[in-house]
Design brief:
The complex is a heterodimer of chains A (about 200) and B (about 325).
Chain A lengths: L1 H22 L3 H21 L3 H23 L15 H24 L15 H10 L3 H22 L12 H7 L1 H10 L3
Chain B lengths: L2 H36 L15 H11 L10 H18 L9 E3 L2 E3 L9 H11 L2 H9 L3 H32 L4 H7 L8 H4 L1 H15 L10 H4 L9 H26 L8 H24 L5 H28 L1
Antiparallel strand pairs in B: 1-2
Classes of the chains: A mainly alpha (about 200), B mainly alpha (about 325).
Chain lengths: ~200, ~325
């Protein structure tokens, strides 16, 4: 009974939170609601007994992914409302409804046709994290390693793109050195007169 | 699920909340006294014996102060941000074993709210959500200092989470479990079995990262008084500001418990002596937080990032690789 109560409670909370994320025009509401929704999703993993996935859901989505969104928020004034440009609301509505129906159909179809089998049944006496490790390093070894390689490539690319002047630190340089290295900054400062 | 279990859990939650809220208040008193002692002052002396009732005076002040909401802030987010800091600190405590199991009046009590088998992962994950308190509070405040503080808190938390995770990986590889109780039992043999002897590097790294995770000096850049006033707390007043403090102090206590359990043997074999040792270890780590605050200045943000990515992270990775090689052969 408690599981049912918990499920419906967190299901309702998750839907409400993600609705706020989509509907609101205030960026801070959106990011807060999305972070809350991500945490509430982890509740489903805990209810199902998948503690490891629940904790990972919290760490990855709320800790890492959402914090990067928060960095993105630094580029605009979060205390103002975002004015969206809506050219054709009808098309957005139709596409949105179609996508929702499609997602529901995808998830309902295997349940209706009783076509769900556990390919890797839970082994007795094996902990949560060990079970995940076994599946990852047997059946899904190639996708797992491919994902690792892709992340490595992305990391190196990020360092190459962002790290052109990484060996210099503006904080440690004197004003003259900065002026020599960036002549346009010098003219900007003298013209602006606020430095 | 039977009713007794639910009642027991609720009682445990209430007890932990009460004890650690009170300890957070007491923590501010300890901090002021320790800092005063190290700076050759007396600290709080006037209210009560040795200034002990200063906590009550501060509490009354915080509760009765006007709750000011400035004009241009994003109200709901501004109001909820301190609650996030305090709530996540206490949520993290759910998986920490505070005391070995004991029998009282013929009833065996496990002083841990939820003994999930991924305890340490859960504790660190929920503590990481604490980032949203300063972040949202700073961004909703409509204040430039608060915004700078929010940006810094996001950068510091994300960077040092890497150190926390990587430094813990090596001891976890040795124990082979993510449960804090299993980690404790692994070291139950005595002082020579403590993980700190086999993983000294991981111990130091985790300890350093703990200062960043709790935002304490020398990594107190999120609210660095001489540059950005009180950072994310600048626009707050009354109990909302107090909630940020309760969260910070509760986090200091909980991270001290985590360090003591993972690296210093925890409560050992579960006897009363072991339990008292755990409290002493936690008290030492809490005192160390205050000691560093008195002894060290804050470092610059760029130094903090340099330390994280160019010094600590490579050491942590090397530590994991070396541990793996040693365990294989």
């Amino acid at each position: 009974m408690f599981e049912a109560i918990a499920f419906y409670l967190f299901a309702a909370l998750t839907v409400v939170m993600f609705t706020i994320t989509v509907v609101t025009s205030q960026a801070l509401y959106a990011i807060t609601a999305m972070a809350a929704g991500m945490i509430f999703i982890s509740a489903f993993f805990f209810i199902l007994g998948a503690d490891f996935l629940g904790a990972i859901q919290i760490i990855v989505y709320t800790g890492a992914v959402m914090a990067l969104y928060a960095f993105g928020m630094m580029f605009f004034d979060t205390t103002r409302k975002v004015v969206e440009k809506r050219v054709n609301p009808q098309i957005v509505f139709v596409l949105g409804v179609l996508a929702a129906i499609l997602v529901v159909a995808i998830f309902v179809a295997p349940i209706v046709s009783n076509n769900i089998h556990a390919l890797y049944p839970v082994q007795e006496g094996v902990g949560n994290s060990q079970a995940i490790g076994m599946v990852l390093f047997t059946k899904y070894l190639v996708p797992f390693e491919l994902a690792a390689v892709m992340l490595l490539v992305a990391m190196i690319a990020g360092i190459v793109l962002a790290g052109k002047k990484m060996d210099k630190s503006l904080t440690l340089m004197t004003e003259e050195d900065i002026a020599k290295a960036h002549p346009q900054h010098e003219s900007h400062h003298s013209a602006g007169g606020h430095h | 699920m039977d009713v007794a279990f639910i009642i027991e859990t609720i009682v445990k939650i209430v007890v932990i909340l009460l004890i650690f809220s009170a300890l957070a208040g007491l923590g501010t008193y300890f901090e002021r006294k320790v800092l005063a002692f190290m700076q050759r002052r007396l600290g709080p002396m006037h209210v009560g014996p040795f200034g002990l009732l200063q906590i009550a005076a501060d509490g009354i002040k915080l509760f009765t102060k006007e709750d000011i909401i400035p004009q241009n802030v994003v109200k709901p987010i501004f109001k909820i941000a301190p609650v996030i800091t305090a709530a996540t600190a206490f949520m993290a405590s759910a998986a920490i074993p505070f005391w070995p199991q004991f029998t009282a009046f013929g009833y065996t009590v496990h002083p841990i709210v939820a003994d999930i088998n991924v305890g340490i992962l859960y504790v660190l994950g929920v503590m990481a959500i604490g980032l949203y308190g300063p972040l949202l509070g700073g961004m909703a405040s409509a204040n430039k200092w608060s915004l700078i503080s929010a940006a810094r808190s996001a950068a510091i938390f994300i960077s040092y989470e890497v150190i926390t995770g990587l430094s813990l990986l090596a001891p976890l590889m040795m124990v082979g479990s993510l449960s804090l109780i299993d980690i404790n039992n692994y070291q139950a043999g005595g002082i020579e079995n403590w993980i700190v002897w086999s993983q000294p590097v991981a111990f130091i790294l985790f300890w350093i990262a703990a200062f960043a995770e709790t935002g304490r000096t020398p990594f107190h850049l999120v609210a660095n008084d001489h540059e950005i006033i009180d950072g994310f707390g600048t626009e707050y007043s009354g109990m909302r500001w107090g909630l940020f403090f309760i969260g910070e102090y509760a986090n200091m206590f909980f991270i001290s418990f985590v360090i003591a359990i993972i690296f210093l043997g925890g409560f050992g074999d579960g006897t009363l002596a072991g339990a008292i040792q755990l409290i002493l270890k936690v008290a030492f780590f809490f005192f160390f937080f205050l000691w560093t605050r008195a002894a060290w200045p804050d470092i610059r943000p760029d130094q903090l990032m340099w330390l994280c990515w160019k010094v600590l992270m490579p050491i942590a990775v090397i530590n994991v690789v070396v541990t793996g090689i040693v365990m294989m052969f």
